[in-house]
Amino acid sequence: MQITVNEQNHTAQANETAGSVRDRIKADADLIIVNGFPASAETLLNNGDQVVLIRRGEVPGADELDALLTARHTPGVHEAVKGATIGIAGVGGLGSAIAVALARTGVGHLIIADFDIVEPSNLNRQQYFVDQIGLPKVYALRDTLARINPHVRTTACHLRLNPANIGEVFGHAQILVEGFDLADQKVMLIETFAARFPDRSIITGSGMAGFGPANSIRTQRVANNLYLCGDGTTAAAPGTGLMAPRVGVAAHHQANAVLRLLLGKAPEDEA
Amino acid sequence: MEITFNGRPHELTAGTSIQELLDQLRLDCLQVVVEHNHNIIPRQRLAETALNDGDTLEVVHFVGGG
């Protein structure tokens, strides 16, 4: 009968036990998962079962990890994103969540740029940890991404982006994602990148403060190569703070827009 | 003359520059991205870029937060 072991196809004997498969394929594994649930060594396997053998604390090799991390992807997605290089300008509430989502999806190369340092007030929505307070965000995020998927390459640029360096920093980015805080900086980034690389798409965020309905956050195509994620109007202001749920909704609209573009789909289409 | 402004017909005086239109509409050029006939126009060129009959203009307003 046919089973998968750590997402690779294997032939097993009829009525073979999970322990026998473990002993044959990965004798040092101390956890056996069958079809998503922990199983004992005596468990009898059936045709089509999915077996995962884990040794606690061991980081799988590149090929195995690739297969394991993307096992729940739709077929074809991983191949399409693996070779991609995506730029993320600003790694606060939007950018840090976008980077985590794209690393989990298996995007091969992320270029992240930000001048900022992790502060306690960031932790209400940004993908940082208390033990990272005081670190430059780009280095803290690079470490986190490596803990999720060590085979994603991250280029971390600890600098303030300006019209003079944007073209160089994101020269290899086939898509640019905007994650800035200030409206005039969002505009500066878009104008500069669009002038230098008019054929490349930019995915921007505007209007995700407060706790208004999540459904008011949308992905729209607002110019030829410019996609906007957000409600378009709710600015960060006293009484309308930036919080994890709505910022996360907008960030994941942006990450999904990247994924859709890489798969040749229009980000804004409903169908 | 008539242009298409954010998807809708918009009447304006011939020879109006993009900057003049933004001023009329009280839009701050630091907070908007302007796409003129499918090209994004840097803010330094808004004053020198004149609008012509039939042009397409998209003005995207940004708010802070991220």
Overall geometric form of chain B = globular
Indicate the mean pLDDT of chain A.
Answer: 95
Overall residue-averaged pLDDT value of chain B: 95
Number of domains of chain A: 2
Number of strands of chain B: 5
Spell the H/E element sequence of chain B: EEHEEE
Shape of chain A: elongated
**Total domain units of chain B:** 1
* Percentage of residues in DSSP E strands of chain B: 25-35%
The total strand number of chain A stands at 12
> What is the SS-derived class of chain A?
alpha/beta
Helix content of chain A: 25-40%
- Determine the oligomeric state from the structure: heterodimer
Q: CATH fold name of the largest domain in chain A, please?
A: Rossmann fold
Question: How widely separated are the two ends of chain B?
Answer: 39 Å
CATH topology of chain B: Ubiquitin-like (UB roll)
Distance, first to last CA of chain A: 39 Å
Topology:
The complex is a heterodimer of chains A (271) and B (66).
Chain A: E1 2-5, E2 8-11, H1 18-25, E3 31-34, E4 37-38, E5 50-54, H2 62-69, H3 77-82, E6 85-89, H4 93-105, E7 109-113, H5 137-148, E8 153-157, H6 166-169, E9 175-178, H7 183-196, E10 201-205, E11 218-223, E12 226-230, H8 244-262
Helix pairs in contact in A: 4-5, 4-8
Chain B: E1 2-5, E2 8-11, H1 18-24, E3 32-36, E4 39-41, E5 56-61
